[in-house]
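fyi for ur records
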Amino acid sequence: MFNKILIANRGEIAVRIIRACKELNIKTVAIYSLADKDALHVKIADESICVGTHKSSDSYLNMENILSAAIATKSNAIHPGFGFLSENYTFAKMCRDCSIKFIGPRSSVINKMGNKSNARKTMIEADVPVIPGSAGILKDWTEAKAFADEYGYPVIIKASAGGGGKGIRIVHEESNLQASFENAQSESLLAFNDGSLYIEKVIVNARHIEVQILGDEHGNVVHLFERDCSLQRNSQKVLEEAPAYILDDKTRMEICNTAVKAGLHVGYYSAGTIEFLYDSEGNFYFMEMNTRIQVEHPITEMITGIDIVKEQISIAFGNKLSFTQDDVNILGHSIECRINAENPDDNFKPMAGTIDFIHYNSGCIGYRFDSAVYSGYSIPPFYDSMIAKVITFGKTREDAIIKMNLALDELTIDGICTNISFQKQILQNNDFINCNYDIQFIERGLIC
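which gave:
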């Protein structure tokens, strides 16, 4: 196994990876920006090294500095976590060129599946159903108009290099099409340095269903069942659950086996997610692939008992998967609530500041709290606002909901604003309780 792994990330995912490494008896190196010198991942790693200023571009996105840190600390591998450089094929290739193992798939696969329009073409080749959309990159907004004229509104314009809800615009009528196209292009250029766009038909009343897959370098690909990630605000996930309660067993196996077929087609290894839209008539369509660990991976770990991060590390070392598809079973139901430092009463404005006191439910079966914050910790204003994930597990969905209500009632974070109250509103909404929601649920104002 690896002797030492550098974690090229911050926050709760860095803490999560460090803990997995410790269980595997692997030494860890934390990188940090000047703003994160007191961060928890820095405190619990075996070694730490500063890679730049508070700006992400100078630190967590600085490939040369990160690789220099790995070489200086004699790290055998780099785990990128999620976000930042996790889906950057150039960084993955640079790691390989420096004889440092990138804990993720091959750079060529990241490149192929990271570009959304290329991914569509690849899935069509694999005979995976895709959402009706443009054959390739749109040259200009008039091509988007031609597509909308043929398929009808609403349509969605997407950044080919997109992620995190950036470079996306839903258009309901022709009068807004040109402005939406130009705004999406500008946002995509700013976020990804790539203004290429494509267009798809909007699947009305859709659910966002994603399938967790794991593959090894020996040609094995398995699924760990699916997650329902339909509760979103501005295309950002808010609450996830696993498995997707809305699916019957036949559809579940169809969508999971399709995800495995997609993984096999691209020769995938490491952890990855095949994401689908599921319509009200029971059809599902490929949307995108994430070639990395997901924020919401803990709910899959809870329902299967499989440690995805440890499997990632083992796969990267060259080992076969430690289990087969027949070993994977659904053990119950799990829910994750993302806790953000933001003010729901002020249009969810991100909030920096010092946490005076924090307390969360612990010591009970079926509760998990993934976080990197602590009493006295000052949240910097430079990064993502997510500060914790509350995860519950029960034998049934009802059990998981009951436990999540109890967990949020007990969760106390003093000194900053959070979205805890907003999460409680979702959990106590009758449509959520009855699993009657889709990806437009929050935007329609059903939670206020």
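The chain has a mean pLDDT of 95. thats all i got for now
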